[in-house]
Amino acid sequence: MTILCVRFQLPPMYEAALPRLLGLLEEFTPVVEALPPDGALADLRGAERYFGRDAVELASVIRVRALALYGVDCVIGAGPGPMLARMALRDARPGLTRAVPEGEEREFLAGKPVAALPGVGTATARTLCEYGLDTLGRVAAAPLSTLQRLVGARTGRELREKANGVDRGRVVPNGVSRSLAADRPFDRDELDPDRHRRALLSAAEELGARLRAVDKVCRTLTLTVRYADRSATTRSRTLKESTAHSAALTRTAYDLYEALGLQRARVRTIALRAEGLTSAEQASHQLTFDPVDEKVRRIEEVADRARAKFGPRAVMPGSLAA
Fold first, then answer.
1. 77 - beta bridge partners?
2. Which of 224, 182, 226 is nearest to 204 (CA)?
3. Which of 17, 76, 283, 316 is most solvent-facing, going by the fewest CB within 10 Å?
């Protein structure tokens, strides 16, 4: 177990605290990959030898230091590779590290549904389940030729390797994520377009605030609508200029939604993803003489300061709408 996947228990929209927590991990190893908004991968192969402790013991030290120095708890998964560490994290609980010992990868994976494997989408999982390959144990035992006929040569080979616990991934130092996402699930399948739009407004304002908190702007906005039958529709749009402006993100989100032409759709979840992130300092901004736009931007600055001081609920979603 040489790889840790750590998720810090940060309040929403607090990515600005992540660099300091990454610094804590870098006290143990320089091989740290950020997973914004609240996580990281850390390769502890060198640290285990240097400190004379295994990854689980080092994870306990990391947890104590995060609590003592920053008041932040965390959940941690450990495994021989990044994929297994990520999957172990899903079973972890605060205060405990879920570890997958080397040599027990197949046993850990065997009973999990095939959809739990990273990279297996809805369509692939459905195809495999139709042929009785509904768990990773069954996928691991299936002939390679069968998997390749079902999902393709390359995908079938990679799927079989992963189901058998072969993890070829690696931790990429300083590999900061190029996207941020905000999901809005409904308590029940939602038919009301007005509630769909309110969810879009809330998600767009969250993304804007999170982008501004880390001094980033996005170039592309992607909308995913998931329906009651578990199918989904995804649409993307490149913005006229990179932005972290909530009003601009909201307008684009509304345009994407309207273009879908949904009529009486039973929606389960609406998700927005800001992609193509770059530094706000390097982004250009078209000057405008629109007093309303400038007023909204000034209100955003005040709202961001209020969130930083009083927490993410200091400004309610929708309060910045123009």
1. 5, 98
2. 182
3. 316
Nearest to 159 by CA among 115, 193, 199: 115
Which positions ≥6 away from 235 have C-beta within 8 Å? 222, 223, 256, 259, 260
Which of 218, 151, 124, 47 shows the shortest CA–CA distance to 56?
47
Reported for 131-139, long-range contacts at CB under 8 A and 24+ positions apart, including other chains, are 135/110, 135/111, 136/109, 136/110, 136/111, 136/112, 136/163, 137/106, 137/109, 137/110, 137/111, 137/163, 139/114, 139/163
Res 288: pLDDT: 53
- What is the distance between the alpha carbons of residues 110 and 89, in angstroms, rounded to a whole number? 17
Residues 6+ apart with CB under 8 A from 45: 2
Who's near 237: CB < 8 A, 6+ residues apart?
220, 221, 222, 252, 255, 256
First to last CA, the chain: 51
Dist CA 301 CA 283 (whole Å): 18
Which 8-state DSSP code applies to residue 315? S
Token output for 70: 């920053």
| DSSP characters over 243-307 | E--HHHHHHHHHHHHHHHT-SS--EEEEEEEEES-EEGGG--------HHHHHHHHHHHHHHHHH
Q: H or E segment at 209?
A: helix 193-213
C-beta neighbour count of 162 within 10 angstroms: 25
* 93 beta partners: 96
| Dihedral angle sign, alpha carbons of residues 167, 170, 176, 178 | negative
**pLDDT by residue (tens digit) across 235-261?**
999 998 899 898 899 999 999 999 998
**pLDDT tens digits along 3-44:** 999 999 876 556 667 778 888 999 999 999 988 778 899 999
pTM given for the model: 0.60
DSSP secondary structure string for all residues of 111-147: TSBGGGSTT--HHHHHHHHHTT--BHHHHHHS-HHHH
